[in-house]
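Data deposition worksheet. Section B asks for the primary sequence of the deposited chain exactly as it was used as input, without tags or linkers unless they were present during the calculation. Section C holds the resulting structure in token form. Section D is free text for depositor observations; keep each observation to a single sentence. Incomplete worksheets are returned to the depositor.
Section A, Depositor: J.P.
Section B:
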Amino acid sequence: MQMDNPMGDDVRSGRANVRLGLFDETPGMTDATLVLLRIENDGSQGIAGDDYTSRERHGLTAVFTDRTIRGVSVTQPPGTDHLMDHFTPAAGLSYEDGVLRIPRVPLNRGEHFKLLVLLSGGDVGRGIRLIGGLRDGEVSPNRSTTPDDQPPLFSRAARLITVLLTACVVTLALIVVLRDDSPRPIGCETGTLTVTGSTAFAPVMSELAKKYEQDCEGADIVVDAHGSTAGVRELGEAGAKSSKGAPPVIALSDGPKPSGFPQLRENRVAVSVFVLVVHEASRLTRNFAPRPPPARFVRPRARWGPTTQSPAPPSTRFVRLRPGGGWSRSSPRP
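Section C:
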């Protein structure tokens, strides 16, 4: 239905209208209304006369509730003059009271025709039903632009395409803005690595592990140092248990690997520097040639007088490594 407008000046709905000419002189126009029906094939296939399922001569029936039909006019769009041959009483076009019988009009896909119906005896907005059936289809109301409606700027398909394109553009913009373009540093790896061995290297390895994890996302480095020998032994045991090649374990030792681990390969990666510390009151002679520190601890000495030019400190401290390695412990000796 594209239109349902009053024509009388005494309309029950309270909508007053000014009438001139036939609209004012014709009897029964006090509560007249005009209805414009549009019958359209909006399906994907054409409709033939035999596709209507009605057993009567007509194909469809329009029922106007509480109104009486006073006249009917048929219009068709340009290029469809052949449809007018179907709108005859012999083809089933007729009306009685509030019932309009519509013939079996064949319609190609997208074709339509319109019926302008003059009614009386009821207000606008009363129910209008279209009754009928189609083979492999159905008769149902649809929505079209009424004469008073302003046509949309874009069609439904154009609006849908516009929404999809807008969503795509917004998505691409978010990807460009939010993604991290900073390249990963060269040599970054992911996974878990355990560093064990000498405790002397533990502070340096902990700092390196922290920086590596910051630069390389997905890397987890665990520093677990218990001494050189223990670390080498732990690496050997991990390799023996691994069935997928070398285990993710590195052992740092402050000396050559112990014997008994032929399957391990060692690489020199750093130089360990050892310093002999003496008391600040001790003054060594210029031509003093110190012997290796281990020889100094072979024989106990109460005083180190022969090695100094002045009286030695009142006591001597022997420094040795803990069993775990890395940390030193001192004990006074008389």
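Section D:
Residues 295-302, 326-334 have pLDDT under 50 and may be disordered.
The longest strand covers residues 112-120.
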